[in-house]
Amino acid sequence: MDTNAINVLLIEDSPGDARLIQEMLAETRLPPFALDRVDCLSSGLDRIAVREPDVVLLDLGLPDAQGLEGLGALERKAVSVPIVVLTGLDDENVAARAVQEGAQDYLLKGQIDSNHLSRAIRYAIERKQTDEALHRTLEQLEARNQELESFTYSVSHDLKEPLRTVEAFSQFLLDDYAGQLDAQGKDYLVRMGKASGRLKQMIEELLTLSRLGRQPDELLPVDIGQVVGDIRAAFHTALEQKGGSIEVEGELPCVLADRSRVEQVFGNLIANGLKFNRSERPVVTLGVRAAGSGTVTLFVRDNGIGIDPQYHDKIFGVFQRLHRREEFEGTGAGLAIVKRAVEALAGRVWLDSAPDAGTTFFVMLPRLQEVAVAA
Ligand code: ADP
What we know:
Elements: E1 6-11, H1 15-27, E2 33-38, H2 41-50, E3 55-59, E4 61-62, E5 65-66, H3 69-77, E6 83-87, H4 92-100, E7 105-108, H5 114-177, H6 183-213, E8 220-223, H7 224-234, H8 236-242, E9 245-248, E10 254-257, H9 259-275, E11 283-291, E12 295-302, H10 334-344, E13 348-353, E14 359-366
Parallel strand pairs: 1-2, 1-3, 3-6, 6-7, 9-11
Antiparallel strand pairs: 4-5, 8-10, 11-12, 12-14, 13-14
Bound molecules: adenosine-5'-diphosphate.
Adenosine-5'-diphosphate is lined by residues 268, 272-273, 276, 302, 304-305, 307, 315, 320-323, 330-336, 359.
């Protein structure tokens, strides 16, 4: 037995076709092929249970399996064995679907020669190995991400406890001993209170970030018009005081998402549009920019201070801010939350902005229905 040989399991009921394949493989010396043939799917599955071949050549018209049935059964039994489908000309469509469903390649009977067959087998094996390596890397990456997420979650959670104590005791000091402190002492305490308030907000935002980054359990229709209506109601007083407004161009669509993530996305973008704004009348406008096949892109435009293009990536980082806190309040987690939430919904977020030219954020999400694009 040649240990370098590529072990091929041929599942083919037609003795004529089987013989042809056998002859083609025999013609190729490098690499040598060791062929084993069975004439039905169940015998093929039995063979695989005893010893996995390097590759399976599968006929789609077997006595006990028609079309793609056989492929599914083989894939379940031998996850890491590449499968090359053999087919007659008239089921080329089925063969193409077989590739979508996991077969490495398909060969049209009557159109292959020895070189073609040998190459197809070698490539199928290489492709399968690459696929498997990629799959393993993705799994590792996913596991690392989950670890990191639960680490962020538990650290943030555990930090809340001592912080509550610091907050409570500095408040007790202020309430019960204020009379014994001079102005500077009170000022120190007030600063401590503010700093712990900020720390608390950052911890809350880290928790939100780790929660929203996970895939939502269920995707449901979410009406963005309603979400924006609720946000407008929540900003009502602030808008009246500032003389600003939240406007909608055209109709906002329904998307396939989960409501809390959509609220975070548009809540943060609208709040930023109103906050980073020195105009006499801050305006944030929302609408649909484009609708593609299965997706819709919304825009959130403001007439605010704008953002230099060199910072367009940076601002999506956690706790990244471009301004001093005295000028604009905030921790710098809002856009990181937006990005995580959009990506968890299989969407994308980006922006168009320049200093003093306002900012437009674009949010692409899976859409639920036909939508009209704002003029
Ligand atoms: P925060 O609002 O807490 O500062 P964000 O993560 O929401 O944090 O935003 C990060 C930074 O990006 C902000 O500090 C600000 O400098 C800039 N930024 C975000 N949105 C806008 C906007 N609409 N216009 C101008 N600058 C913005």
